[in-house]
Write a structure and sequence with these properties.
This protein has one domain (6-69). The longest helix is centred in the middle third of the chain and has 13 residues, at 28-40. It has helices spanning 6-10, 28-40, 62-69, and strands at residues 14-16, 25-27. It has 3 helices and 2 strands; from the N terminus they run H-E-E-H-H. By secondary structure, it is mainly α. Strands 1-2 form a two-stranded antiparallel ribbon.
Length: 74
C-alpha cells in the first residue's frame, strides 16, 4: 500500500473511510477497483464478500458504499 501524496489529496484522490468511525484513508481509485472486484467475485460458499477497510478490516455497509462509490457505481 502506498502513501497518498499531497497532489493526489488535492485532486480528490484521498478517501476517508467512515465505517464504524475508523476514519482510515485510502486512494479513491484503488478502493473503487477493490470494492467492485470484491462484490463481483463469488466466494467458496457461493456468495459474495463485503468490501472492508484496508487497515482495520471493518466491513463497509451499503450506505457507506453508496457514499464512497456513488449510486451509479454501486
Amino acid at each position: 500500500m502506498r502513501v497518498i501524496t499531497e497532489a493526489e489529496a488535492s485532486q480528490g484522490e484521498k478517501l476517508m473511510m467512515l465505517v464504524d468511525n475508523c476514519y482510515h484513508f485510502t486512494h479513491r481509485t484503488c478502493f473503487k477497483k477493490y470494492a467492485k472486484k470484491t462484490m463481483l467475485t463469488m466466494n467458496k460458499n457461493g456468495g459474495f464478500n463485503d468490501p472492508k477497510c484496508n487497515k482495520c478490516h471493518n466491513v463497509i455497509d451499503e450506505f457507506n458504499l453508496q457514499e464512497l462509490l456513488g449510486a451509479e457505481e454501486l
